[in-house]
Amino acid sequence: MHSELCSIKGNRDGLVITIMDSARFSEVLTTLDRQLKSAQSFFAGASAKVMLKQGELGPEQLDSLEQLLAVYGMTLDREPPRLQQPVSEKLAVERPERQERGYEPENTLLVRRTIRSGQSLHYDGNVVVLGDVNPGAEVICTGDILVLGSLRGVAHAGAEGEVDATVFAFRLEPTQLRIAHLIARAPDGKVTKPAGPEVARIVGNTIEVSIYNH
Amino acid sequence: MGKVIVITSGKGGVGKTTTTANIGAGLASLGNKVCLVDTDIGLRNLDVVLGLENRIVYDLLDVVEGNCRLRQALIKDKQYGENLVLLPAAQTREKDAVKPEQMLELVKELREMYDFVLLDSPAGIEHGFKNAIVGADAAIVVTTPEVSAVRDADRIIGLLEAAELYEPQLIINRVRPDMVRKGDMMDISDIDDILRIKILGVVPDDEDIIVSTNRGEPIVNDKRSKAGQAFRNICRRILGEEVPFLELQERKMLNWFKKILSGEAR
């Protein structure tokens, strides 16, 4: 499944070049060159960050990467490439149905802060928030949403029609919850506060919230 | 070199200006040299709250446009003189008359002259707000225990963080302990639960504030007022002191008992 040596993706911070294994760096360069060529001048003027799944990159390797990007009018953000833990193969094998979805399980954005009112996060993949999603904020993504805190804003999981997507939160008190094409909102009047973690998913033709037990 | 603090809220009418005036007067009475800057161009009222309206000759815009020297525009307070000065906003112009670079330059100059520069921000998140935060080292967000005010405070905190003004502190204004007790008003923990920033102070709702504002005399040095006490505590916390929070939820019996004991009407 890691057939791709590297990928270029955009997220809210800009472009991210993910390199699976630095040991095959020359192959990575060739692949990247081919990908950039096929994208033509689409990325021109953009600044890209490097994300590394395995191994490390030396300054010379960063140099050659920078040179390659410069050919396509791009710049390299030379902050030390972050090492990202690869998703365990076992997990991926155990849940093969994930592969049939439109996104890969490892395509997950980790947000290490609270998303506040007026802030909006769009992402192609899953989103994990280490903080709260406050009222007036929204998280919209094509995969699952996990909030390790309180979800009080608007969450839209499976935004491209993925009916298997779920929304999980330690305290699930959203203003509005959307999964795929369905919309749910909190009942009017006094609402009892959830006692613990809850998860929302589509059951039949409605969004159902249940206490989370793994 | 002084510290520059912007006082902001997002929502209007939560008490930014009153808070600015009282913190300014409080810090001045504790022996600091303080400059208050009203950045609410077109809708100034910090001068009114301080009772200095009739002394304005030049304003912030005159300074940035070079019509006068900075010192000429600074108005000395009635009570604290040199230790508390106000740079008033222009009343007859629009908010975009000042550019962020000009604000930055102005703040830089003031910071050399005073221990504290307090910037009273306009409501909203547009041009005026951006002008107000541009030169600040720290931010104080004022809110009231209302859902809409807390929502706007949250928005502002997000914007402050985006502008690299991290760790803003919160003042919760106009708290009514009786309503909180009955469950009719958000309590401190409800607000803290959403905003999750350090609480600098909790100011009880106090009719005397209205009187003091209309009279143009900050309440901070009124020893009888609970709101004044809250503002004095806030000032001490700004100066780095650890001050316990006021006990707002006094029971009626206890109050009545106290009154009899102290023999004075509170």
List the defining traits of the structure above.
heterodimer, A: 214 residues, alpha/beta, Transcription Regulator spoIIAA, Pectate Lyase C-like, 2 domains, 6-stranded mixed β-sheet, 5-stranded mixed β-sheet, 4 helices, 16 strands, 17% helix, elongated, B: 266 residues, Rossmann fold, 8-stranded mixed β-sheet, 12 helices, 8 strands, globular
How would you sum up this structure, described in words?
The complex is a heterodimer of chains A (214) and B (266). Chain A has 214 residues and is of the alpha/beta class. Chain A folds into two domains: 78 residues, Transcription Regulator spoIIAA (2-Layer Sandwich), CATH 3.30.750; 113 residues, Pectate Lyase C-like (3 Solenoid), CATH 2.160.20.70. Helix content of chain A is 17%, strand content 35%. In chain A, the strands form three sheets. Chain A has a six-stranded mixed β-sheet, with no helix packed on it. In chain A, strands 1, 2, 3, 4 and 5 form a five-stranded mixed β-sheet that branches. Chain A is elongated. Chain B has an eight-stranded mixed β-sheet, with helices on both faces. Chain B has a single domain, classed as P-loop containing nucleotide triphosphate hydrolases (Rossmann fold). Chain B is of the alpha/beta class and 266 residues long. In chain B, helix 1 packs across helix 11. The model of chain B has no long low-confidence stretch (mean pLDDT 92). The N and C termini of chain B lie far apart (41 Å). In chain B, strand 6, helix 7 and strand 7 form a beta-alpha-beta unit. Chain B is built from twelve helices and eight strands. Chain B is 42% helix and 17% strand. At the A-B interface, loops of A face helix 7 of B.
